[in-house]
Amino acid sequence: MNSKKKWEYFNKRLETMWDVYLECMEHFDTKFSEKWKVFCESRNEQKYKEYLREIEFPYRNTLNSAMLIAFCSLTEHVVADITDEKMKVCKKKKEPKNGDWLVRNIKLLNECGVVIDPNGDDVKLFSCYIKIRNCVVHNGGRISNSKHQDQLEEAIKAVEAYAQTGNYDMIKIKEDYLMLGSNLIGDVVSKSEEIVNEILEKI
Predict the structure, then answer these.
(1) CA 168, 174, 180, 184 torsion: positive or negative?
(2) Total-model pTM
(3) pLDDT band for position 96 (cuts 50, 70, 90)
(4) Residue 15, pLDDT above cutoff 60
């Protein structure tokens, strides 16, 4: 599959997943409203705790975590495939290396004449999302269990600073666990499209 076809497939997948996400969130918002109304009518602290336990954490955060994993993984797949394709054309060998897969692939593309800034704002922020994704995948979102906790904490700080620029609901920490906001998922989708578009425009 050539790069254009990869992009078309990638973009359709993003659109489909995003539509499903919005439908689920609309459903949860309805549930939130119903539970909140019951709580306000009762003024019962126990009902409020049940409301949070039954809806806010298992539904919203689980959905956001799943979507973060899906969008990051989809972007990883298409960028890696485009890089492999380009390296075959320029007859370079892809050596296995550790580190951030996005930055690594961009540097490989640079070696083949596709000039993308590995330190650009979009790339740096998406790299932070990848580190947060890794924590969710490998540690269930628990920060202290991360093998690279210092890198994870730097990523969290960068996302928090970015969130303050637009008062976005991006990320919270609750009892050592990551709580992901809906604005984070929206920005992951946006950055995915921007990064892949920039790569394809320069190939």
Answers:
(1) positive
(2) 0.82
(3) low
(4) yes
Q: Indicate the pLDDT class of residue 26, thresholds 50, 70 and 90.
A: confident
Instruction: Name the phi and psi angles at 112, rounded to 5.
Output: -100, 15
**Lookup: tokens for 7:** 């992009």
pLDDT (0 to 100) of residue 20: 86
Q: What is the mean pLDDT of residues 111-135?
A: 92
Question: What pLDDT, on the 0 to 100 scale, is given for residue 18?
Answer: 85
Domain count, the chain: 1
SS (H, E, C) the chain: CCHHHHHHHHHHHHHHHHHHHHHHHHHHHHHHHHHHHHHHHHCCHHHHHHHHHHHHHHHHHHHHHHHHHHHHHHHHHHHHHHHHHHHHHCCCCCCCCCCCHHHHHHHHHHHCCCCCCCCCHHHHHHHHHHHHHHHHHHHCCEHHHCCCHHHHHHHHHHHHHHHHHHCCCCEEEECCEEEECHHHHHHHHHHHHHHHHHHHHHC
Report CA Rg, the chain: 19
Residue 179 corresponds to which amino acid?
Answer: M
Decide: 7 and 200 in contact? Cβ < 8 Å.
yes
What are the structure tokens assigned to 52, written together? 């949070």
| Distances 163 to 71, 125, 154 between C-alpha atoms, Å | 19, 11, 14
Quote the domain boundaries for residue 70.
Answer: 3-202
